[in-house]
Each structure stands twice: as structure tokens, then as C-alpha cells.
Amino acid sequence: MLTYATTSNILIFPPVLRGKSLVFPSATESSYVTLQPVAFDHLSAFTLCMRIASEQRRSYSLFSYATSGSDNELLLWRNEDATFSVYLSGKIFPFVLPDITALMRHLCVSWVSTSGRIAIWLDGVRSLRHVGHQGGQLRGGGTMILGQEQDKVGGKFDVKQCFVGEVTDVNMWDRVLSPTEIRAISQGGCHQAGGNIIDWATVGHEAAGTVSFRDNEDCTI
Questions:
Q1: What is the DSSP letter of 172?
Q2: What are the tens digits of pLDDT across the range 119-150?
Q3: In Å, how far are 117, 187, 188, 193 from 180, measured between CA atoms?
Q4: What is the pLDDT of residues 48-87, one digit of tens each?
Q5: How remote is the C-alpha of 79 from its chain's centroid?
Q6: What is the pTM of this model?
Q7: Integer CA distances (angstroms), 1 to 19, 174, 200, in order
Q8: Alpha carbon of 146 to those of 50, 115, 150, 152: distances in Å?
Q9: Cβ(50)–Cβ(171) below 8 Å
């Protein structure tokens, strides 16, 4: 069954995202989903994973986390030339990867402060590692949004930067997952355990605009 948020209201529906996909059907600056993760003061490591598909060829946001100190505290960005960028506290780290297409792909990004190692995993295969934001932290107290890129906390969206496509199984951990764990998650669908910061099965969320919630046909509850 499909359900839609409206542009005049912010809805909290469905109450559980397990087995659901979010579909952003068209380019707009008013459609987005705000996630309500487990609160944290700061993170010295993380792994963020999701399943995603899009036919857009322009640049767009895959995941936007903004704080009062940086609107790009953590941003996963697909560039117009089909490269990817990871933003950490405003610093940019580019990656050349196979492009996101209409086929659902599993995407993870990991970072750890002690070594500064940043890597992206696509369908269980790791990219080369970059080093950045060594000794730094991911600050807490911000806003996590799917579908838009935040130029200020919770807003100032640009229709040219919005996501159009489908996303599901967004999970985040406060550590770097092992290669074995990431490969298992990439193959395991929605029955894998969720993250301890974002757990797709239980995370609170608010939707605005014309986002639709659809049953994830790759997942049998």
C-alpha cells in the first residue's frame, strides 16, 4: 500500500520503516524525510549504509547531516560527473566509483578518527581508502535528512540538489564495520540487524512533500 505526505503537513507515517522504501518521485525543494537517530554528543568513527537507486544524472544529495557548526557535518554527495564526495565537517573527499543507476545498489561509507581512513563500499566491494579529518569528530545535536541537501540546519533546500529515486535500509553505527559485516549486510536485505545510531526498523522520522512509502519488494517481513 502507498501512502503520501502532503505539502501542507508534516506527517509521521508509517510508524515503522522496516520493510519500507522511500520514493522521491520528482524534483522538488519541499519533499524530504527527517530521521531521528539515537542522540550522541560526538562520534569518533561511523559506518553509514543504505540501499539506493536513481536515474538522475545531475548532482544530488544521498544523505545530509547538518549541525550548527557545519551544514555539511556529514554529506554523501553524487557529483554531476558521476563521481562521489564525502563531506566531513565541511572538508571534501572525492571518490571515483561506479555510478548509481535504476538498479538498487548497497552503499556504505566508513570513517575513523584515529587513522582518518575513509572508505566507500559498493555492493560489498571496498573502494581505495582516503585519509582525512584525522583526530577530528562528527559532532552531535544536528539534523539528518534524506531527499535534500541542507544549506542550514533543517532547511534552505535547492531543487537542483534534491534526490529523485528510491532509498531504503538506511543504518548507521558508531564504529567501522568489518569487511565481513559489510558484505553480509549488503547481501542480507532487511533482516540484518540495524545500526545503533540509525536503525531503519525503529528510527523515528517525519516526512514532508510528496514522498511515498512503499513496501520493499525485496524484503519479506
A1: E
A2: 999 999 999 999 999 999 999 999 999 999 99
A3: 18, 11, 12, 14
A4: 999 999 999 999 999 999 999 999 999 999 998 889 999 9
A5: 15
A6: 0.90
A7: 12, 34, 19
A8: 11, 28, 10, 14
A9: yes
| Percentage above 70 pLDDT, the chain | 89
| H helix runs in the chain, sequence order | 179-188
Cα separation, 53 vs 40, in Å, equals 29
What distances in angstroms separate CA 164 from CA 37, 147, 216, one per listed residue?
Answer: 23, 7, 17
Gap between the Cα atoms of 18 and 21, Å rounded: 9
Q: Which of 1-10, 176-185, 192-201 comes out lowest in average pLDDT? A: 1-10
* Alpha-carbon distances, residue 45 vs 48, 131, 170, 177, 201 (angstroms): 10, 13, 17, 10, 22
Residues 6+ apart with CB under 8 A from 34: 143, 144, 145, 154, 205, 206, 207, 208
Given a contact cutoff of 8 angstroms between Cβ atoms, the answer to whether 107 and 62 are in contact is yes
Which grid cell is 82? 558521476
Q: Kind and range of the H or E element at 103?
A: none
Q: CB-based contacts of 147: which residues, under 8 Å, 6+ apart? A: 22, 24, 31, 32, 33, 61, 162, 163, 209, 211
User: Cell numbers 543504505 label which residue?
Assistant: 50
The cell numbers describing 69, all together, are 557548526
Contact 46, 197 (CB under 8 A): yes
ω into 94 cis (within 30 of 0): no
